[in-house]
Write a structure and sequence with these properties.
20% helix; 207 residues; alpha/beta; six-stranded mixed β-sheet; 14 strands; single chain
């Protein structure tokens, strides 16, 4: 049986998710001090197998180093976002916010994978960033979409690497083709579903 727990972390209250399956778990986008995540893992007796980044903007990676050091779990991210590790958008320091502690990370290609014993389809969903990924777990009926799409909204596309047309194609071709009951777990704000956004998201009216 799977369980998903969310934590709003860091200066921008970024949603960090922990998906647990039996005694193993994965964390998605630790955007701040991971102490609450670590406490949850300890309380539930969970072993963290991977740290998955949907993209490498600083507000999604603040906790990468501390969580990786505490658990030994590797950090994974999209190939095309690797350049952000050397930019302010990835290293922090923008808008008067603190810098990101540098962390070691590995790239992952779109395709089929297994995390915490669960099948995962890693989808290339650029638009908010060039290398944005969505992690879709069919058994959990959930997709971790980062800042691609939000409840009744979409991610901003005015950062370097963002593109509105690309983002909309990612949503329509990759997200809206998932089962309508699939939970969409975004980087900020409440959860939603594929079907709900297809029917009510104003950016896709008439889809």
């Amino acid at each position: 049986m799977t369980e998903i727990k969310s934590f709003a972390l860091g200066p921008l209250q970024t949603n960090c998710f922990v998906l647990a399956n039996g005694a193993e778990a994965v964390a998605v986008d630790p955007g701040g001090d991971p102490a609450p995540v670590l406490a949850y893992l300890k309380d539930k007796g969970l072993t963290l197998t991977h740290i998955l980044n949907t993209h490498l903007h600083f507000d999604h990676t603040y906790g990468n180093k501390a969580l990786a050091q505490a658990t030994g779990a590797p950090v994974l991210h999209g190939v095309d976002d690797a350049y952000l590790l050397e930019t302010e958008l990835g290293l922090g320091g923008l808008f008067g916010l603190p810098p990101v502690d540098r962390y070691e990370a590995q790239t992952i290609e779109p395709g089929e994978a297994v995390f915490a014993g669960l099948a995962c389809t890693v989808l290339a969903t650029p638009g908010h960033s060039i290398g944005s990924l969505t992690y879709y777990f069919p058994e959990a009926r959930a997709a971790f979409v980062g800042d691609l799409i939000f409840y009744r909204s979409i991610g901003r596309t005015d950062f370097e690497g963002g593109d509105l047309d690309t983002l909309k194609r990612s949503v329509t071709e990759r997200i809206f083709t998932l089962p309508p009951e699939t939970l969409l777990l975004s980087g900020h704000g409440p959860e939603t579903t594929v079907g709900d956004e297809m029917n009510h998201n104003p950016f896709f009216a008439g889809f």
